[in-house]
Amino acid sequence: MIQFFRNSRKILGMNARNLEFIRPNNLRRAKRLADDKLRSKRMLKKADIPVPELIGKIKNVDELENFDWAALPESFVLKPNRGFGGEGILVVYGKKKNLFNVWIKADGSLVTVDDLKTHIRNILDGSFSLSGVPDIAFFEERMKLLKLFKPYAYKGIPDIRVIIYNKVPVMAMLRLPTKVSDGKANLQQGAIGVGIDLATGVTTTAVFGKNKLIECVPGTRLLLSGIKIPYWKTILTLAVRTQEISGLGFLGADVAIDRDLGPVFLELNARPGLSIQVANHDGLLGRLRRVEGLKIKTVEKGVSVGMNLFGGEIEEEIEDISGKRIIGLKEKVKLIGKDEKEIEVEAKIDSGADFSSMDKLLAESLGFSSTMNEFEKLGIDYEKIKGLEKQDREKFFKDKNIPDLEDTAIIHSSHGTTYRPMVKIKIIIDNTEVLTKVSVIDRSHLKNPLIIGHRDLHRFLIDPARMAK
Amino acid sequence: MNQFISLALSNGVPLDTLILVLILPIIVTVIAFFRQVVGIKAFGIYTPAIITFAFLATNEIRYGITIFITVIIFGTLTRLLLKQFRLLYLPRVAIMITIVGFSILALLIIGGIYNRTGLASVSIFPILIMITLVEKFVAVQIEKGGRAAVVLAIETLVISVVGYYIASWDILIRYILHYPWISLLTLPANIFLGKWTGLRLIEYFRFRQIIKPR
User: How far is A154 from chain B (nearest CA, A)?
Assistant: First the structure.
């Protein structure tokens, strides 16, 4: 029950969205800009944001009658300037051969100039605009579908919705058009929303329509999780930059990826929908609160804050399932030696080594100076000892009574074979404690004072792509 | 009786008008409550309020509901019929109002045939109000699609029925005539609603998968 209330407090509802986020952050001027597609397109283009190229526009019936239809390219998108929710958008994919000025839609049906004229008249009359005010129709270039998305998208172009607040990307989802949504990427109309891990740009959980959780593309066995979105950082950067330009403090940015052009900015949204929370299986309010009041000076900073704060869910999931922690090739670890002496060092994770091994100086700082001194006094090296059996060696050292000497070991490495003393310490890797014995050798000529061998790595998975925190 | 009420009455303000005006703030506050706290949207605030009064003006609420449902059904059918003609907005609405008007007329006649005289004797104003509901219905269909429009129409019906029972609640009316100022208590109530940022009840359902402890 307590958990229930704690979880529900993380969720952004309509009331809070309107009163706490849209009202104070999106001033009327900025909202008007977002609702005017042509003006925002012009403004973004001036600021060097890639947008779909404008082919032509029709402002009134006169212009409609005098429009040069032959000048239209093979494929284009016809949109109402103030349309919303994907209404009133007409997409053609090619020109019909042997016929004059006839285009083909995705479902194979034909579109004539007369059809276009009727549609445009409806747009001009405001049939698709907010509150029915007269509108402008415009043509823009059609995005080309990325190969990666081909199996997932039905007809239309998928896009990526990123919510930006205070210059920080807080949540994102991939929107895939479906048969139900008729090729439109709108969740309200039945598209699929797939949550995205902000740190990696890899998809996580998915929702079909407004709140049906799914794992695969409906009717197929195509998994929706684990899709790696290309140009991820560029997309986030683009989204944050448009926030700066548009002045919308609480922005839903839509970015598509064109096969040839890469990320292209599609649309500004002053009132982004709330279903993105279901797609990501997480509440927005919790994330917005964490970003609120941060002083973010640059776009790059905002992007990296978002990636750091709201990523890593996939790793956590793997950690949950396997019961193991995920670590990289370099990790900051804490060593606890004799008399609870603590030292933090960067360790190299080396699954090729059996035992962990640390530098002599490090061992001395951990309280093992006398161990090292007395061991060295014996003047033993591999050549002298190699004739002895293991039991004999153990007995030999037991008699010498060297303090804190846990064990000794013959270590074969690329530098040759050495005979080393071993001491018992605790290593804390990513909050996990490992009690172990570590061989000691002079590593001062090496980059890392500590390597961790596979005997101490049973409770970890290694991800070579992961950076040290 | 309250002084204010007797002053109004003695100056020729009809009692019915007085009651309606005093009860109106309560009705609209209930509608606001349904939107902000429960999450039932309906067609804004004007439509459910006016439908509530249309229900009050019909003799029996079941006739009001019957007319309402007829309007929605024929509104939907006409829309499907007109879709292929691709008409502009106002002519389309005009055709819909015409067809819905005739369907209501047919309903009244059918009511008469089956001796439901109460239906035929419903006064013209509630009928007109409900016919013009079609325009709102069409606007929402364009804006949010056919299904959403039907859902919103049903929500409007639910709220209007609740409003009807509140407005015809004897005890409330008696209280309001004794203490007309309680009608003003809706002001602080609305200030509270206007600052309410909590989740709506419906949102607990919508986001149940995220809220559910894992």
Answer: 20
Of B89, B144, B210, the CB nearest to A127: B89
Specify the pLDDT at position B70: 92
What would the DSSP string read from start to end of A385-417?
HTTS-HHHHHHHHHHHT-TT--EEEEEEETTEE
Is the distance from CB of A35 to CB of A128 less than 8 angstroms?
Answer: no
What does the pLDDT look like over A293-338, one tens digit per residue?
A: 889 999 999 999 999 898 876 666 677 777 788 888 888 888 888 8
Whether B181 and chain A come into contact, CB under 8 Å, resolves to no
Question: For chain A, which domains are there?
Answer: 10-36+47-52+143-323 (3.30.470.20), 53-142 (no CATH), 324-462 (2.40.70.10)
User: Tokens 């056919």 appear where?
Assistant: B146
Q: What is the pLDDT of residue B1?
A: 66
Tell me the chain A residues in contact with residue B197 when contact means C-beta distances shorter than 8 Å. 13, 15-16, 19-20
Dihedral (CA of A46, A51, A57, A59) sign? negative
Taking the Cβ of residue A278 and every Cβ of chain B, the question of whether any pair is shorter than 8 Å is answered with yes
Please tell me the pTM assigned to this model. 0.72
Domain ranges of chain B: 27-211
Please provide the size of chain A in residues: 469
| Contact residues for A216 (Cβ-Cβ < 8 A; gap 6+) | A222, A223, A224
Give the residue ranges of chain A where pLDDT is below 50.
Answer: 469
- Cα-to-chain-centroid distance, residue B164: 9
Chain A residues near residue B43 by CB distance under 8 angstroms = none
Q: What burial class does residue B14 get, using C-beta atoms within 10 Å of its C-beta: 0-12 exposed, 13-18 middle, 19+ buried?
A: exposed
Residue of B nearest to A118 (CA): B86
Is residue A381 classed as helix, strand or coil in its secondary structure?
A: coil
How far apart CA B72 and CA B56 sit, in angstroms, is 19
CA gap A43, B139 in Å, rounded: 31
Instruction: Write out chain A residues lying below 8 Å of B213, CB-based.
Output: 3-4, 7
Q: Show the DSSP H helices in A223-333 as ranges.
A: 232-246, 276-280, 284-291, 299-309, 313-322
E strand or H helix at A91, and its extent?
Answer: strand A90-92
Crossing angle of the two packed helices B46-57 and B146-167, in degrees rounded to 10: 50
| A469 reaches B (C-beta below 8 A) | no
**Alpha-carbon distances of A294 from A146, A167, A282, A288, B135, rounded to whole Å:** 36, 9, 21, 11, 47
The answer, for A289 touching chain B at a CB cutoff of 8 Å, is: no
Give CA B68 to chain center in angstroms.
Answer: 9
The angle at the Cα of A25, spanning A21 to A31, to the nearest 5 degrees, equals 105
Whether B171 has its CB under 8 Å from any CB of chain A: the answer is no
